[in-house]
Amino acid sequence: MAFLSVKDLYVNYGAIKAIQGISLEVEQGEIVTLIGSNGAGKTSTMNTIAGLVKAASGSILFKGEEIANKKPKEIVSLGLSLSPEGRQVFPQMSVKENLELGAYTRSKEDKEEGLANAYRLFPKLEERKSQAAGTLSGGEQQMLAVARALMSKPDLLMLDEPSLGLAPLIIRDIFNLIRQVNQETGTTVLLVEQNAKMALEISHRGYVLETGTIALTDTAANLLKSDKVREAYLGG
Ligand code: ATP
Questions:
Q1: Domain segments of the chain: what residues?
Q2: Domain 4-233 has what CATH class?
Q3: The complex's ipTM?
Q4: From the alpha carbon of 160, which atom of ligand 1 is closest?
Q5: pTM listed for this prediction
C-alpha cells in the first residue's frame, strides 16, 4: 500500500470543475513532482490533500487512513504538512516565532528539537532568528516557509511552488535543500513546480496534469527525456 494514495479525486469550485478524477501515489521516501500549465489543478490537488479545499468525491489515503475532507489540523497531526504557494510567512513576527507556529500541534520539547533541526538545516535562519520575517530576502522567506512546514516533523511534506519569484541561483539552493531534507531526514516530499526541469532533477517520479486530469506519469528521468514534456514544460 502506498504512503499516500489519491484515488479518483474530484474537486469543484461552484460550477468550475477543477479536478476531474485524479489518481496518484507517493511511496515512502520518494520525492514526487506535479507539473502542468497554469490552471491545470496542481494547487487544488495539494490543497485538497491538506484539507484546505473540499473534495467533491474520491479517496485520499495517508498511511492507510482516509483523510479526505478531514480538518487541516487533524491532517497535520497525522504527519502531513503543506508549505503553501506564495510563502505566506507572518511579516511582523520574528523568524523564530514563525518557526514555532509550524509546531503548534507539538509539545514544548518537540518544538525545541524542531528549532534545533531547522537551524541545523538552515543556518541562515538561526543568524536571523530575531529579525522580523518580512525583512528577510525572498529566498530567505522561502527557506523559512519550508523550515516552518518541517517544524511539525511531517512524514510527508508538500511544497507548493517553492521557487516562485526567486532568482535562478537561489532556486538551485532551495532545490538542494529539499533534496537534503529528503535524504537526511527521510521525509517524503510532494512538490508542485512551474520550474519543472529543476524539480524533476531532484525527483524520483513525476505526474503531468492537464485540465484537472493526469496526462502522463513516469520516472523523473524519463519525463526529462520525453519530447512531449520537453516541448510543453521544459522550454524545448
Ligand atoms: P498555477 O500553476 O497557475 O498555480 P494550478 O495548476 O495550481 O495553476 P489551480 O490553482 O489548482 O491550478 O486551479 C485549477 C482551476 O481551478 C483553475 O481553472 C482555477 O481558475 C480554478 N480555481 C482555483 N481556485 C479557485 C477558487 N477558489 N474559486 C474558483 N476557481 C478556482
A1: 4-233
A2: alpha beta
A3: 0.94
A4: 7
A5: 0.91
